[in-house]
Amino acid sequence: MIELIVPNEHAGLRLDRYLALAFPQFSRSRLQNLIRTGDVRLQGKAARTRETVHPGDVVRLTVPPLEEIDAQAEEIPLEILFEDEDLLVLNKPAGLVVHPGAGNQTHTLVNALLHHCTNLSGIGGKQRPGIVHRLDKETSGCLVVAKNDAAHQHLARQFAEREVKKNYLALVSGVPKRPRGTIEAPIGRHPVQRKKMAVHPTRGRIAKTDYRVLQSGGGVSLLECAIHSGRTHQIRVHLHHIGHPVVGDSLYGRKVAAPRQMLHAWKLGFTHPRTGQRHFLEAPIPEDFRRLQESAFR
């Protein structure tokens, strides 16, 4: 069972929306189904989807049993940064979708993991075995995968309670006015373009990103970004918001001569579920990122 205390910033949210923020490894429909089946309790009572949560409320989610996996194993090379009996951390390549979904039933990270591992956690459901968190298709870098349900539960709590350290590298257009700064701007679904997120001063949810400029030149800058929340497309939306979109990000920026959006999940820090040891992993910078960086700062 996973237990969380509702923080002040999530006051007034519908229960299913709060759970979607707290447990990004679950799809919204799966969470709603868990509510309907009685696997979610609010203040000790069976919950309803449309209930609202209040600061200090106790939410308990009973870990669902392992589901039969639909995805097929595929021999896709993986760059493993760390692995033991409980979890693995890999350097996800750009262009690899994390889990099967509409239009991507094969050639995903899940397909590769099923070939690499003999066991994966089942908390995420049959389409997302082992998946604790996600990266966009075109974002490369550190991603942790749970091999059993106990590890998944422990890691999910760390993500939900913001105990995981996440640092990214981003090549952006232009040069920020300040060498370092903090972007605190609420993020929500774009009111018109439903595939996009946007800064919403009133309807968005709290989001915070720290950045510092590592290098500038040739009309671009290399930033290190640390995120303190886990909103969809957070870094991309925040950098676009301050006028420095990620190079190659066709959704939030403009088309430029780049092979993809230049965003890399550089460093990941978390506490090991079994040993309690703090781990810090770093994913090497991909070749396409490095080449563009070198040409810009030549």
How many domains in all? 3
Low-confidence stretches: none
- Could you tell me the number of beta strands? 15
Average pLDDT reading: 89
Structural class: alpha+beta
Q: Indicate the CATH architecture of the largest domain.
A: 2-Layer Sandwich
CATH topology title of the largest domain: Pseudouridine synthase
List the helices and strands and how they pair.
Blueprint: E1 2-5, H1 15-22, H2 28-36, E2 40-42, E3 45-46, E4 58-61, E5 80-83, E6 87-92, H3 109-116, E7 140-146, H4 149-160, E8 165-173, E9 180-184, E10 187-189, E11 197-199, E12 208-217, E13 220-227, H5 234-241, E14 263-271, E15 278-282, H6 287-296
Parallel strand pairs: 7-14
Antiparallel strand pairs: 1-4, 2-3, 2-4, 5-6, 6-7, 8-13, 8-14, 9-12, 10-11, 12-13, 14-15
Helix pairs in contact: 1-2
Task: Explain what the structure shows.
A hairpin with a 3-residue loop joins strand 5 and strand 6 (87-92). This protein has helices at 15-22, 28-36, 109-116, 149-160, 234-241, 287-296; strands spanning 2-5, 40-42, 45-46, 58-61, 80-83, 87-92, 140-146, 165-173, 180-184, 187-189, 197-199, 208-217, 220-227, 263-271, 278-282. Helix 1 (15-22) packs across helix 2 (28-36). It contains six helices and 15 strands. The chain folds into three domains: 2-61, RNA-binding S4 domain (Structural Genomics Hypothetical 15.5 Kd Protein In mrcA-pckA Intergenic Region, Chain A, Roll); 70-160, Pseudouridine synthase; 166-265 and 292-296, Pseudouridine synthase (2-Layer Sandwich), CATH 3.30.2350.10. Strands 5, 6, 7, 8, 9, 12, 13, 14 and 15 form a nine-stranded mixed beta sheet that branches. The chain has 298 residues and is α+β, with helices and mostly antiparallel strands.
